[in-house]
Amino acid sequence: MTVNAESSTSIASSWRDLPAAQQPDYPDLGVLREVTADLESYPPLVFAGECDQLRGRMAAVARGEAFLLQGGDCAEAFDQVSADQIRAKLKTLLQMSAVLTYAAAVPVVKVGRIAGQYSKPRSKPVETRNGVTLPSYRGDSVNGAEFTAEARVPDPDRLRRMYHASAATLNLVRGFTTGGYADLHQVHAWNQDFVRTSASGQRYEALAREIDNALNFMKACGADPAEFHSVEFYASHEALLLDYEAALTRVDSRSGRLYDVSGHMVWIGERTRQLDGAHIAFAASIRNPIGVKLGPTTTADEALELIERLDPEREPGRLTFITRMGADRIRDRLPALVERVTAEGAQVAWVCDPMHGNTFEAASGHKTRRFDDVLDEVKGFFEVHKALGTHPGGIHVELTGDDVTECVGGGDEILVDDLHQRYETACDPRLNRSQSLDLAFLVAEMYRA
Ligand SMILES: O=C[C@H](O)[C@H](O)COP(=O)(O)O
Ligand SMILES: C=C(OP(=O)(O)O)C(=O)O
């Protein structure tokens, strides 16, 4: 993308006078201004044309012709920008995508919670441990996770580190997805380390053999399309820190429109989606595909107003509603939203985040989620859409490629007592690789049904 020299911040400033929830309390705004001035001069991380392409793919999701698989860490961390970590996450997403594409026979749009997911909205501004109260950890882009007064001070320089960590991650993601690793002929290779140790790995292996047979058959018929040799993969994150997102907003010289070039797709979270707030105004000003999280208190009027602000032209692919109601509420709360939105003629993509409405604290103090609740929320999501004749457009999950013990249940049955073994998340509990694959198989069955 060619970038117009005109200052993007002065253009994308409609949000600046509005209240912005969940922003860091920086001790020195002068330093923040220096950092954002630097960020404004940095090259884009993604290109406007790629964002347009993803909007096109999301339009297919909204029309019921494709399925979104959006997943990755709850919170990325600067010290985890390594080839092994990134490859493990990608491998998990590629395996899930192979399962969904083959078993559900639907094109899968692949979007990572990756290369920018460094900022966390928090329920409470402070955290107390053993009588000591400090500001909450808000993600590596804001402060440090260590429980010391020094680490918890918001530091604007972390925004620079976020940019560089995102750039390094994206570079590797592009290498993996286009440089041969994501070639469909590698379906077995993605599973090699996993097949002997996990039931879902074995189930996957059987499916990979079928894919192999299908590929060999097609090759024998003379068909070996380029689509089999690389993967279209996009990056997304929550657009939480508006100083960062605005500093990475550029004018696209082709169209004169603004794009947030920090990621292909950005979403606005449940805690920052106030209709008269800065986040929605910022999202309205950019042309990227936008997601908005909708929790159980969302009213149909709010949903319609969000459409009015973010997708006034009713363009399929522009707006994705990511619902996160909780397994016990999805069947009650979702129908009214889907009915009103559909009646208004808006073609949003409906996507299920079965993670954020199902968190609880185990007796050990670990924040966790039950795999069965995650699954049940997805089931409820499919049931509602089936009953209304609308399209269950995808899933949005927090996952990792590592064998962590953060969520309970799944085929390899992690118990509450196991949580301490590998509890590594910087914020919320993620599905491990085996649980992620289990979920993909079960979602594929639901989709086909
Ligand atoms: O990932 C989502 C939120 O940032 C997270 O659930 C907030 O966690 P908290 O309720 O512990 O602040
Ligand atoms: C904060 C998040 O979710 P929500 O806004 O739905 O709570 C998230 O997805 O990281």
TrEMBL record:
NCBIfam families: DAHP_synth_II. One of its GO terms (biological process) is amino acid biosynthetic process. Pathway: Metabolic intermediate biosynthesis; chorismate biosynthesis; chorismate from D-erythrose 4-phosphate and phosphoenolpyruvate: step 1/7. It is an enzyme of class 2 (transferase). Mn(2+) binds at residues 74, 356, 398, 428. Its cofactor is Mn(2+); Co(2+); Cd(2+). It comes from the Bacteria. Binds 1 divalent cation per subunit. The enzyme is active with manganese, cobalt or cadmium ions. Phosphoenolpyruvate binds at residues 113, 270-271, 293, 324. Belongs to the class-II DAHP synthase family. Keywords: Amino-acid biosynthesis, Aromatic amino acid biosynthesis, Cadmium, Cobalt, Manganese, Transferase. SUPFAM superfamilies: Aldolase. InterPro entries: Aldolase_TIM, DAHP_synth_2. Its EC number is 2.5.1.54. It catalyses: D-erythrose 4-phosphate + phosphoenolpyruvate + H2O = 7-phospho-2-dehydro-3-deoxy-D-arabino-heptonate + phosphate. One of its GO terms (molecular function) is 3-deoxy-7-phosphoheptulonate synthase activity. This is Phospho-2-dehydro-3-deoxyheptonate aldolase.
